[in-house]
Amino acid sequence: MSNGIDLAQLLARSSDVVRRVLDDAPRRRLQVLLTLIEPGTTTLAQPAAFRADDEYFYPASTIKTAAAYAALLRLDELSRAGHPDLSPQTPMVFQPFPADRSVQDRDDSNIRGGSITIAHDCRKIAMVSDNLAHNRLYEFVGHREINEITARLVRSEPGREVVINHRLAEPKIPLGSNRTTPRVEVRCEVPVQIPQRTSDLLLDSEHVPGVRVGREHVDPLTDERRAGPMDFSRRNRMSLRSLHTLLLTLTRPDLLPPPTTLTLRPAWRDMLLEAMTIPPRLSDNPRYEAREYPDHFAKYLLPGLCRRCAAADIIVTNKVGRAYGFSIENAMITHRPSGRSIAITATIYANAREVINDGGYEDESLSDPFMADLGEAIAREFF
Fold first, then answer.
1. pTM listed for this prediction
2. Best CA proximity match to 35, nearest among 319, 376, 332
3. How far apart (Å, rounded) are the C-alpha atoms in residues 108 and 168?
């Protein structure tokens, strides 16, 4: 309980779907953190927690926020080290990885010149969770560097709360090969050459309860069905508390104690926050069709929030993730009329069959209704 908030009671007062998950919380790996921020707040209270970090969950695309933040910080370092013309709009070229692939030197979704840029990739991952854009940011920063930067952002050490070991949606690249990132050219006035790197940082999550998931799995490399759980010990991990801290570091750095906060340039932070907030249909670059990317496409709580509040009264700045039966929401919700904000980080595992990597999950029948009803419960309780 924190600030008088009892999350178990809040969930119990919600819908039948939420109560069903609550009654089966360990099997569903349900975890929730919630921080209430009143108008005029100058310090953060401890978040209210329900089963936070009781066991492993796969963070999926929620780690893309870390990649965007780290890429902007790394860009700032290069700019201050003798490349003052460098910006998030500077064109970039990525050499092939693996070697049998093509050079990446264009992004046709960028209607302003077709270049690959940090800014454009940040927008794509924030609005529609683009995997290729994330992987480029991962390659720009580097394996060791992204782990070290993200650990500092969440006030930890690499491997304790954060393990970022691989690209996303690249199952045919062996896990160990993900520590290698290709040569990158940044085409500013005096071009920056980032060499191919192979990180010697070895991280795993063997110490985390429940890191082996399911009763059967389909091997990502071979596509063979295998008996026994899937081992996530060398796959990506961010603890629930780390995701929550990362969200607050980005959205409300004024409430966090210096000097542990790594600061983004205000204009660059605003660019990322805008992309994490607006619906895809309002983006002028890249452009997205509303019928393919509705407003709730990457905002799982939004349908429920809008049952209780006018859409114009709600601001949702967030990043979701979904893979292997796990669904995660990491959101700052601001209610304009009251001025209240809620930072919420929640995860659920919806895979009754317990077969990993065959696509037979309960996303539409359980995860989506749960997240929407959680949004409604938040709106009813606080707004």
1. 0.96
2. 332
3. 21
